[in-house]
Structures are given as C-alpha cells and as structure tokens.
Design a protein that fits this description.
Rossmann fold, five-stranded parallel sheet, single chain, about 450 residues, about 15% strand, alpha/beta, 3 domains
C-alpha cells in the first residue's frame, strides 16, 4: 500500500535517509526541518501520514500531534523518539498518535508501522464515503420530487453541504424549509453533531435572547443558575433560525457579531465563549423588502444571504403532488394499521387541481385526514375535504359522457382513461399503475392491447 508521507525532523541526514528508503518502497515523500514548513506542506498537499520527531526546537512532537489531531483527525501520526519509555508512549497516544517508533529507526519495522497506518487511513476514508452515501440516500428518500426546480434544489444542497457558509432558505409556509435545512446538515461534515432549530417568531425578545445566547446566574430576576444558549449547545453542529425576519432589531447586531467572530457573550456575562457553528436561516417573507423598510438590518441580511435557496410552492411542482401523496399514504397507513395502497383517479385529479396554499404541510394533513376516514383500500374523492372537491381545476367528464347518444364501449373508455392518466403523469408508468390500482404487468398488457 503506497501513500503520501510527510517526514518532520530537524536532523537533515535522517530526513534524507528516510526519504531515500521510503521513496524506494514506492511512497511519495515530503520532508520538513521545521514545523512551520510542515504546516505549509499540509496545507498545500494531500498527506496520508505524518512521521514526526518527538523533540523539535519550536514545538514538541506530542504538541504538534495534538494540534494535527484537532485540525486533521483523518491523518494518522507516527512519532519517532529516542526515549522509548512507557510514559512517552502513553503521552503520544493521548495526543492522538497512531503509533510511535524508537530511534535509531529500524527501517523495516518503520515500514510495517506506516503500512498499518495507511491501511487505517484508507479504512477511515471508506467509512466516511459510506456514511456520506447513506446520508445522501436518506436525504433523497425524504426530499421526494421529480420537478426540475426541486431537483435543482437537491443538486445545490449536494454542492454546498460541506461548505460552512451561511444559507438563506426562502419559500412559502409549509414548503419544507426545515427539511432542506436538515438535508444540508445531514450531508455536511457536521452531520455527527447537533442540528438545532428555533423559531424566532415563537418567543418574546427577552426569552429569545436568553435561548440563543444563554445567560449567567443573576442576569435577570428568574436567572437562578447559569445556562448555555443554543449557539453554544449546538457548537460543532448546525443552527436553523426559522422565521428569521421576525428576529427583533435589538438582537440582530448581536447575532451578526457571532457570525463574524464565532464568539458568544451570554446575557449578563463579562466574557465570551468560542462558538463553532454553521447558521442557516429560513423565512417566508421578502427580506430585501424588510431591509428597505428598516425592519431588518442590511449587514445581517448580506451575512446570512451568502447562498439563497428558493423552495418552489407545491402548486408549481406538478406531479410531485401525487408522488408526495403516495409517500404519505405509505407512511401513515403503517401508523394507522390500514391497508390503503393508493388513490382513486378522481381523488388524484382533485389533488392535482387544488392550489395548495398550505403546501406540503397541508397535503400531509389532507392525506392523514383521508386515511383516518376512508373505508376503502384506495382514497376516494369522498374521503377528501370539501375545499378540494370544489377546486376549480377539477378534471371534467369526457365529452362522450355529456351526450347519452355518444356513449362509448367500456373498453374504449378504459383505453382513453389510461391514456389520460399517463398524460397527466408525463408518461410515468410506475406511478400510473399505482394510482390505477393495478400492477405494472397489467398496465403494460393493457397498453400493448
């Protein structure tokens, strides 16, 4: 197994010896006589292993190992030392070292240690990739939709998830802004840490300040003990500020300070606490308009709006309405212990025709209500609330049924009906079969006929 190895030692002769031997074994080698040079190499190149001396002029190998473990925990460190005591070994392992070897260096034993370290690094990389794939698959399962605008949102999430930059998520109420925020968190390097969401419109100003920034004991009448705020509790993870447009003006400069300095001063406190957090913000309002009218600070707006994601309303997502409805039917049928498998065509037509002012949240509520009431294995138009039945865009009856003199054979009506359903679903045969309540083989047979 070959890798990129950085050798750090102030003994130039030893560096040259190790470079010659390890290069001969097929590794790519960089050498540094000083830690400052080693940091530059680590910044400029993809290093698999660091091999460092224990005693160096500027900083000890133990301290440098601890520094590297904090900043690049994926890179194994092997420490070389002339003092092979148990105390030294324990100190090295506590600092995050993968292994240590004694001087004078036995090149064959060193090679075995480096081989093991490389194997460990590659296993870590595989685990990281598998976790990343699992997170993305879960996000794909939850963020269901084939609409081009929604697909574009999913692609943007994949591109920016690992960036620590702020993101402003805009969209009408119920479009799934928190779902997008959670997808950004799950696909990021912060996914193992906390995801915390707070609604800025749900709390009065003084409680919101305490909730976000924390407080020290005695900061106000009921502050009987100190409390960390969400910004500190979520450190290492992601914080979603939902309904950011409702944040009081007095708190906005304090939030801006956190975003710029990554430090939090608790309410009533005299010192600041480091805060490593990614902040996402969501709103259904026009923040630019709020800035123009003085309800929102322009500097905070520009700091939050580094990247903006605009979530399309459900009424503009076409057949995603039926995809989401089928997903909710599947999920809620299990909860209600019912064997509902799909939608009758008139019910599907109603869902497609309705304008959905409450977006995905309203759709889920409609499906939940219908499942609770239905006595069939498909949701029918009778199971839907009255406002959906009266929606203006409802699919009209075929012209052949308007005039009794033009009644068509049942086979022809079935043929036209199947074609109409496929046309509404843009030719999606799998979804059409589900909505029609037949398996795909039956649908394919009818199409062939």
């Amino acid at each position: 197994m070959k890798g990129n190895i950085l050798v750090i030692d102030d003994d130039r002769a030893l560096c040259e010896l190790l470079e010659e031997d390890l290069s001969r074994r097929g590794h790519q080698i960089w050498t540094a006589l000083k830690v400052v040079d080693a940091r530059k190499i680590l910044h400029q190149h993809e290093i698999d292993i660091v091999l460092t001396d224990l005693n160096m002029p500027e900083i000890s190998g133990i301290d440098f190992c601890a520094e590297l473990h904090d900043n690049r925990p994926d890179v194994p460190v092997v420490i070389m030392t002339a003092f092979g005591s148990l105390e030294t070994a324990i100190s090295a392992l506590r600092a995050g070292a993968y292994d240590f070897v004694t001087k004078p260096v036995d090149l064959d034993l060193l090679n075995i240690s480096l081989e093991r370290a490389l194997h460990h690094r590659h296993l870590q990389e595989k685990v990281r990739l598998l976790k990343s794939q699992a997170r993305r698959q879960r996000a794909d399962d939850e963020m269901l939709g084939e609409n081009p605008a929604f697909q574009n949102i999913k692609q943007q999430i994949m591109r920016i998830a690992d960036l620590d930059t702020s993101v402003l998520i805009c969209g009408e109420s119920g479009t799934g802004k928190e779902l997008v925020a959670r997808a950004l968190h799950r696909q990021s390097q912060r996914s193992e840490e906390a995801f915390v969401a707070i609604n800025c419109s749900a709390l009065p100003e003084n409680l919101l300040e305490s909730e976000l920034f924390g407080h020290v004991r005695g900061a106000f009448t009921d502050a009987r003990e100190s409390r960390k705020g969400l910004l500190v509790e979520a450190s290492g993870g992601t914080l979603l500020l939902d309904e950011i447009a409702e944040m009081p003006l007095a708190l906005q400069p304090k939030l801006l300070r956190v975003l710029e300095d990554h430090k939090v001063r608790p309410l009533g406190g005299s010192s600041e606490i480091d805060c490593d957090i990614r902040v996402l913000a969501a709103t259904h309002q026009n923040l630019e308009e709020a800035v123009a009218t003085g309800r929102f600070r322009s500097d905070l707006f520009y700091r939050l709006n580094v990247i903006q994601l605009d979530i399309p309303p459900l009424r503009e997502r076409g057949n995603d309405i039926l995809l989401l409805a089928m997903q909710f039917i599947k999920q809620l049928s299990q909860r209600f212990n019912k064997s509902v498998v799909g939608l009758a065509q008139p019910a599907a037509a109603c869902l497609l025709a309705y304008h959905w002012p409450g977006n995905v949240r309203e759709l889920r509520n409609v499906i939940e209500r219908a499942l609770a009431l239905t006595q069939h294995n498909q949701l029918t138009i009778e199971d839907l609330p009255e406002q959906l039945k009266q929606s203006k865009g409802e699919t009209p009856l075929p012209a052949s049924l308007v005039d009794p003199g033009n009644i068509l054979p049942l086979e022809e009506m079935e043929s036209r009906y199947i074609r109409q359903v496929l046309e509404q679903l843009d030719g999606n045969r799998t979804l059409a079969a589900r909505l029609l309540g037949v398996d795909r083989k039956t649908l394919y047979r009818k199409l062939k006929e």
